[in-house]
Amino acid sequence: MEELLKLAKKEHIKIIWTQELAPTTPPVAIYNLRSIIMNSNWHNPNQFIFQLAHELAHLIYGDPLDLYLYNQTPAQKFKIESKINDYALQIIFNLYNEIPYSEINIVSFMQKYEIPAHLENRVRFLIGESVL
After folding, report:
1. Are 92 and 50 spatial neighbours (Cβ–Cβ below 8 Å)?
2. pLDDT tens-place string over residues 99-124
3. What is the C-alpha separation between 55 and 99, in angstroms, rounded?
4. Are the CB atoms for 84 and 61 separated by under 8 Å?
5. In angstroms, rounded to a whole number, what is the distance separating the alpha carbons of residues 64 and 31?
6. Centroid of chain to Cα 116
7. Distance of CA 83 to the CA centre of its chain
8. Total domains, the chain
9. Is residue 132 part of a domain?
10. Does 37 map to a domain?
11. Is residue 54 part of a domain?
12. Out of 55, 61, 77, 108, which could bridge 36 as a Cys pair, Cβ 3.0 to 4.6 Å?
C-alpha cells in the first residue's frame, strides 16, 4: 500500500479513508478534486491495493470526459473500466513486481493482489503470455 500512497502524493492526489460507508460501497475517484474516497469498511480489505490502483488509474490516465460517458450505456462503462483496469494492472506491475514479467506466476500474482478473476486474460495479455 505504501508505494501506491507515494504515487498518489507524487501525482498530487488526495486519498480519503472513511469508515462511514457500507461494506459493499466501492471506492470512488473524484476528478475535479483529484481525490479518492476509499472505504475502510470494505468487506475484503485484501482488495485495497487493487482498488486504490484502479482509482489512481482513473485520475492519472483516465479522461475527465469519461465522467460524462460513464453512465451513457453499459458498453461505454465497460470500455472505460476495461481501459482503467489495464492501467491499474500496469501500476501494480510497476510498483510491486520485482521479477521479470516472463517469470510471473499469474495465479499467485492475482491472489496476492486480489485481482478479480475476470481480469486473468488481461493479466496474461499484459505480461505477454498467451491465453490458453
Report:
1. yes
2. 776 777 888 889 999 999 999 999 98
3. 25
4. yes
5. 6
6. 10
7. 10
8. 1
9. no
10. yes
11. yes
12. 55
